[in-house]
Fold these 4 entries.
Entry 1:
Amino acid sequence: MIRKAPISMIMTEPVITLKKKDSLETAERLFKKHHIRHIPVVNDNVVVGMLSYTDLLRLSFADVTDNSDSGADAMVYNMFIIKQVMKKHIITVSTSNSIKDVAEILASKEFHALPVVDNNKLVGIVTTTDLIKYLLKQF
């Protein structure tokens, strides 16, 4: 294992993003199309929030009905906007943070993804899955 390895070694880039004005249906399509669980919400590439698939599932009947065209989901989604559902107080890391630093943050908090920013602009995302994959390569 490389001591002080930067998070830029394992972060995902480019990042799938949303804007506050995007619909929750758009968010659901992106989650499913890209097989991801976290999407940063940006304004001019500056992170203003984070939406997780779990946030959507709290509003949705998608997994209960197993029907991707659920009219009930569309109705519920139309009652909310991304700005209302997203997490607003986001911790970010920079590309120079070490993998160990990021692992400590994720281990001590109740979330599973961190936006990676440089000069206040989104450049990547790192998830607990990225960390697990990195650790598995070490064995």
Entry 2:
Amino acid sequence: MERLYSLQGLRGMAVLGVVLFHMAAVEHKYSGGDTLLPGWVDFFQLGVDLFFVISGFVMVIVTRGRFQDRVQAQRFLFNRLSRIYPNYWLYFFITLAIYLVQPMLVNSSHGGSNLWLSFLLLPNDRVLLVMVAWSLVFELWFYLVFTLLLGFRERGLPLLLLAWAMVLLGFNLLDSWRDYSSALKIVLHPYGLEFIVGSAAALLFYSRHSAKVPDAVLWLVLVMALGPGFALIGHYELFSTEGLPRMVLVGLVFAALTLSLALLERRQLIHCPRFLVFTGDMSYTIYLSHLLVLGVVGRAWQIIGNWPTHLEDNLLFLVLMMIAVWCYGWVGYSFFEKPVLDRASRYGQRRFRPAASGKHYDAV
């Protein structure tokens, strides 16, 4: 399987953006009234949208050559579930322990959670116990759809994705996903468009036409995504909505960013910094754990004391928050997530062997 370091670098940027976005809320809660982080950090909540686009891109990468093979479809689903659940359950039980001891510390302002549905990451109308896990419900839905798509011919994937996109576009132009049950809200939500456009970007990446695109055009696409693309998103404050315009514009901008970086990397015109690549490797652990870590640092700030008329304490504790989140991410990834993933991968290789056709598939 082709490893694209730019994708991991983008994951690293996405998760650091989400952390920064949540740091603003922690600062507002514990700083004593003065704040250092500006309001525009709200933009960085779009890190989740970038995750969805990258997820669609990666799904095309890891399923190439595996269509219409029942064993490989089973292995794909096993790999996806083993990537999501074990690491998530660790932070579910940590949060549950806190909830059982101090219920007011966990989602008290959101009316509580359904523990069983939270544990299984199933759609429900209440906030999940691990609040950031809402995006995982969408990821699981995307994985299920892609597993079903593996039953068709691989050359038909572009048309299948187009049909899925047309259904979502048509529905969201005529109706609102908010008026339906919790499960249908996931199925009909335009977030699916970001996954689809990420998949489409990967199909373009592997098409024979991608090699014909001049380097100058790729650089232009990258600059347009980072410049006018981001500016439009910020101007219309699409990060504060959940409607169709956000999913279409943000999805297209992030897909252009992802595709241009991937092609520039393939041509060895860019190299992603190792720090971002490693941060991307442990982005899932950081994503799941960062609210817990931020809460601990925030309470320490409250106990030690804040200076409402000075920003020195804000700067100190904001830096401490980011360092603590990253350092715990390294610990959690190195000593739990990666060992679990390695063991699951070895089991998947033994359990889901390719049919006796001479094909060989790398672990994913």
Entry 3:
Amino acid sequence: MQALTSAVLAAFVAYVGAWYFGMVEGNFALLLFLASIITGAYWLAERFVFLPQRQRAAAELEVQTLKRNEELGKLGISKVDDNLTEAKHRLLAQPWWLDWTAGLFPVIIGVFILRSFLFEPFKIPSGSMIPTLLVGDLILVNKFEYGLRLPVLNTKVTAGTPPQRGDVMVFRYPPKPSLDYIKRVVGVPGDEVAYLNKRLSINGKAVPTDTLPEFFDEDTMRYFKQFEEDMGTAKHRLLNDDSRPAFVPGAGEFQFKQNCQYSVEGVMCKVPEGHYFMMGDNRDNSLDSRYWGFVPEKNIVGKAFFVWMNFGNLKRIGPFN
């Protein structure tokens, strides 16, 4: 078992290392699932096989020691340094290969359940959601708001509440589902979304906006026009960059692209059933549905709702819209 455990642990370390250095495309959900299964098997084996074996060995040692002491007592030897307590402790102690497998199972299964069905942490890697979310924000995503999904398979098992316009949602990037993206829902199934001359309209009605003071981006050391947008649920802020054109450069091929019309003014799309149209709040610096298309319902991960840490700015901690 020691050799088998060493091989299993080495395989996990090799996989994580290859993932870290970009040699393989990692899947953390799958890795956590496999870790739960493997450590769970060791935990069951420890509870029902290995621990009882050690307990029987310790009990047998105690019987043999007591018997030996009785025999020595008959010979007039009353003081015997048998180190029984220490010997039993050594016999009952978990070997290293169980300590690193069965011993970790409660922690791993707890993380697996929490991450799969309740809340999952993410780190904001880019500025596409500025000013709502900043680079370095560590956020929590509600995994049950839109319905519970089986881990790894991502199969929906409960109905939940459908995503609403204005929600900040984490989803699997359609061109490459192994990547997680975060954007704002601006179009739900059946909507006609138009983003023309940097103004958003839904079903022929312009989304109300109010002008706010300019936003200073510390990373680029620039000021950007800032607005407050009201989609009917909660107001949120967005940015526009006057140096960027209104048209969408370099839009790729994607499913249902025939539902979209591109022009020098921007883009207009009819959202198909079972799909969503996503945009970043940093409107001129966001790779979103304007470029790669609609997000299918099966790609949904959850609703982002809380910044739990930003090591560069603790004032960022708290809920957001």
Entry 4:
Amino acid sequence: MKILFITSNRLGDAVISTGVLRALQARYPSALFTVVCGPVAAGLFEPDPRCERVITMEKRRHDRHWLDLWRECVRTRWFMVIDLRGSLLSLTLRTRRRLIVRGGRRDGRKIEQLGQALGRRQTPMPRVWVSDEQDASARVLLPDGKWLALGPTANWDGKIWPPERFVALAEGLRAQGLRPVLFYGPGEAEKERARPVLDALPDALDLGGNRALGEVAALLRRCAFFVGNDSGLMHLAAAAGTPTLGLFGPSRMSEYAPSGQNAFAISAPGPEGEAALTDLPASDVLNVARAILDGKAEAFRT
């Protein structure tokens, strides 16, 4: 029994979709899954033992990446095709059943939208997969301790809380015994965005860069707390079960707040979609962070 699962190119949306994949795996315990996603999200699914294959879809001119994907999939007779991209490709494949989620903005959280579109009564919470090797590596890189994970980068500058406020937050949480460790994505642009925080916190561990997503998830699990901008890393931290505080400005917290058992969010003042993270004081985030650590932040739980 083979199931094709087409999910997002972007890491954050791909993490959100893992709850749907887990629900399908529970419903069809003998099925093997082929996952289609973008290159940045491929490492999210590779450690999954139920994932027979990961197909990375790199964009090409004139949408030729969809033709490439059709060639990869057309010879297989699928038991089910789940397409979270709403593509026409799903209508051309041989399958007993297909579930296609159309795009477009809707009200409510993205994770709830997916659950409703697929007929789930309960919201399918995200999860992460970690190999034994990745878990062992994380234990070496991040020994036992009270680690404060910081995610000071994002895919565009408007979603980035000022670096000096991440520094102030880290200094303010030292009283709780938390030592900072920085995470960010691959590439020089990501490291340059994180550099002001790294330079200002010389005792912080630098665990950013080109790491497998399973290893990043294993590292995040070893942290006592995560604070970061609205990003794929924020969603990964929440899915890993790390207490997570997401920081929102011009992006929509009502749709993209982190999801998990210990997920929280705070938004800059102002209308949603127009608020500026420069208007979110470090003192406000520090107060919410302390409340989360003390178990008194239900108002900020997502």
